[in-house]
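Following up on my earlier thread - several people asked me to post the actual chain instead of describing it. Fair enough. Here it is, all 87 residues.
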Amino acid sequence: MIEKELPFAIQFMLIALQLLALVVFLYFIWPLLRSERWKEKFIHNKQALSLLIVMGLILLFVLGMSSFFDAFFPVERLDLPKAPSAP
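Reply from S.P.:
Thanks for posting it. Predicted structure:
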């Protein structure tokens, strides 16, 4: 089943459910995030800062590669017949 086969009401319901789950997650995790000393743990600690920078660069690389392959090698639909080629 592809996303076009779902009715719009179900699509919006699933999006709303995901947003509700995000809000509930943030509600439970926010006190823990607020009480931490993030600057001392990650900015002043040079090893942790370098790991954050490397992970960010890896994330950018993976996103760039996926964008490249999506743009230049798109996925073909196999459920549709191919158009006949002109001689």
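The two ends are 35 Å apart (CA to CA). That should answer part of your original question.
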